[in-house]
Amino acid sequence: MAENFRYENGLLLSPGSLVEFRDGCTETKHFIEADLEAGEQAPCPDCSGEHEVAEAISLPIAHNITFTEVEPEDEPSA
Question: Fewest Cβ atoms closer than 10 Å to its Cβ: which of 38, 40, 59, 70?
Fold first, then answer.
């Protein structure tokens, strides 16, 4: 599967989807590196088969993010 990169607001993005399989071998959601919609077939990360997508949320993957400094967590006020 060829990756389709695009720039948006300075970020290099490729397609990704959080999916739930209708007839999958597991009850958990999976992240698939493709832009998928409900009703499409997708490869299952848990088995060698493909399953029908019941639900999908598009979550693009950002490739050019660099963290240079860790911000401290906010302390709750007393």
Answer: 70
pLDDT at position 28 over 50: yes
β-strand 30-32 against 17-21: which pairing, if any? antiparallel
Q: 34-70 pLDDT, tens per residue?
A: 999 999 999 888 888 899 999 999 999 999 888 788 7
Strands (E), 1-78: 6-8, 11-14, 17-21, 30-32, 41-43, 50-58, 61-62
- How many other CB atoms are found less than 10 A from the CB of residue 53? 22
Report the length, in residues, of the chain.
Answer: 78
CA distance linking residue 7 with residue 14, whole number of Å: 9
48, 52, 68 from 21: Cα distances, Å:
14, 6, 37
